[in-house]
Amino acid sequence: MKFYGWLFLCICFVVFGCTKPEINEIMLETQFQDAQQAINDAATVQAEVLVPEEFGRAVKLLSFARDSHEKGDLAQSAEFAYQAELVAQIAIAKTRQHHAREQVVNIREQIYQQIITAHEHELEIASLHQAITEVQLALAKSAHNTGEQQQAELLKEIDELETQLRQATLRAPIKTSESLVNIAVEIFPAIKNGADYERTQAAIASASGLIEREAFTEAETAIADVETLVNSLYQLAVQNQQAETAAEMDARIAIAQVEVILQRAQILNARQHSPKQFQETSTQLQKAKQQFDVGRYEQAKQTAEQAQQMADAVVATAEAKEYLQRAQQELSALIARAEQAVESVGKNMAAQEKTQVPQLEPQLYKLADSAYKKAISALASKEYQTAIDAAKEADDYLQRAITNAVQATSAKSELATASRQVPKVTNVIEQRNSVLVRINGNVFAHGSTQLQKEFFGTFSEIAKVLRTAGFDNYPVHIEVHTSSLGDANINQNLSVERADTIKKYLIDEGRVQENRITAQGLGETQPIAIEGSDKQERNRRIDIIIKTN
């Protein structure tokens, strides 16, 4: 697997640097389902109890897979899920082997019990026959009218019964040996085809013949040989059965491994990327299954191992092609996103170019334009992710500029509307970053720096506007202008004192914060009317400039 990982990284580097391709979520979910189903199947056959180590490992691997998925590492998640399924299949195979062994042990115990019971009954019957004969003999000896001939017959019968009892006693181990041979055959049927089985059967037949011929001394020796041969035959059957079971499990595991690898190959679209190799591997796997079905476990294992090598090669090929294809698709999608992002922010910039946004928010608009140019440059250099990020940055700056401009425009409009409601205000002018409130008329008496009483209400209302929520942080600048009548220096000094008077009134009477207000006397230096009979009246004015930006 390490080889596949390095191969994948190399492909990614060639296509678009070190960007890691993502595994399809649907394919990953399929791998999760396969792993979970294998774990469920293992739990059904009691693998959790009988082979807890393999079962627990499969569950942990699936848990690791889900954790990796939550962390966004889909490649690692797929690898863990694949391993979880494989370990679960191994747990299933070992559990089935355990069940098979238990079944053999149970059958063996039942047969042994039946043999022991039958031998006990046979010996019991023989003992009863002997007891009856002895009673009859005793009765015969005690009867005075019994003749010597009858007594001789009874003695002969006793001898015969003793011989029969001896034969029955010697047949008992023979029966036991025959039963053990039958158990050995049941454990491993193929043992009947071996020379050990033939020798054992011949020894049993020879010992039985000696018993029938009443050659009891030779029979006892022969029986000892029979028991030795039978025990060896039984041990051989057990060993062969264990070896066969192990071979069966190895073959089953090898086949399961190939199946899991082929499933992964299917997820990686191996049928499309490597159809010939995939078909050859499937054929080899089918051959291994057929050998397994007829009990050729060693051949099935070898065939499955060959299929596994082929399957690994199929996965490697499909993995490389699939990741390359995905990388190309992702690169195409990345280029499209970059082009769309740059085009979109360009249209937005062009749409705002002739609005008030560049004037109201020059800093943000400049930042947006700079980021936009960076996005264009990155796109030309094929730095697509940088282009996307720069375009997003430009759009963020632009949207902030638009929002601020809208808010400023709205606030300025509301401020102008409120200022127009103030009595004796001559004009209200909305400027780019401020609202100008102009007052003409005899705000001050001729040559005086004291406010006329009729204008107290005017400046009190202006102060009220300045304290209104939404306007209460705006800076205020007072400009006092005079007509050109009289001495210019006197007019200049008079305008300065009058500006200070208005500032003091707004602070003391209007309760406007002092740090918000600046005042300036400009005398006759900035007239707004050059001609006309009312030019002196128009030039003699007070401008209160409320800065909205």
What does this structure look like?
This protein is mainly alpha-helical. It contains 17 helices and five strands. It has helices at residues 2-16, 25-44, 47-50, 52-70, 74-142, 148-187, 195-212, 216-267, 270-273, 275-293, 297-352, 357-360, 362-380, 384-420, 456-467, 488-508, 535-539; strands spanning 427-430, 434-440, 476-481, 517-523, 541-547. A hairpin with a 3-residue loop joins strand 1 and strand 2. The two termini are 63 Å apart.
Topology:
Layout: H1 2-16, H2 25-44, H3 47-50, H4 52-70, H5 74-142, H6 148-187, H7 195-212, H8 216-267, H9 270-273, H10 275-293, H11 297-352, H12 357-360, H13 362-380, H14 384-420, E1 427-430, E2 434-440, H15 456-467, E3 476-481, H16 488-508, E4 517-523, H17 535-539, E5 541-547
Parallel strand pairs: 3-4
Antiparallel strand pairs: 1-2, 2-5, 3-5
Helix pairs in contact: 1-11, 2-4, 2-5, 4-5, 5-6, 5-8, 6-7, 6-8, 7-8, 8-10, 8-11, 10-11, 11-13, 11-14, 13-14, 15-16
Task: List the defining traits of the structure above.
single chain, 549 residues, mainly alpha, 5-stranded mixed sheet, 17 helices, disordered N terminus
| Share of helix, binned | over 70%
Largest sheet: 5 strands, mixed
Percent strand equals 5-15%
Residue runs with pLDDT of under 50 for 5 or more positions = 1-22
User: Helices and strands: which structural class?
Assistant: mainly alpha
Oligomer: single chain
Mean pLDDT: 84
- Gap from first CA to last CA: 63 Å
Lateral arrangement of strands in the main beta sheet: 1-2-5-3-4
Q: What coarse outline follows from CA principal-axis ratios?
A: rod-shaped
User: How many E strands?
Assistant: 5
- The SSE order reads HHHHHHHHHHHHHHEEHEHEHE
Q: From the alpha-carbon coordinates, what is the Rg to the nearest angstrom?
A: 55 Å
User: How many helices?
Assistant: 17
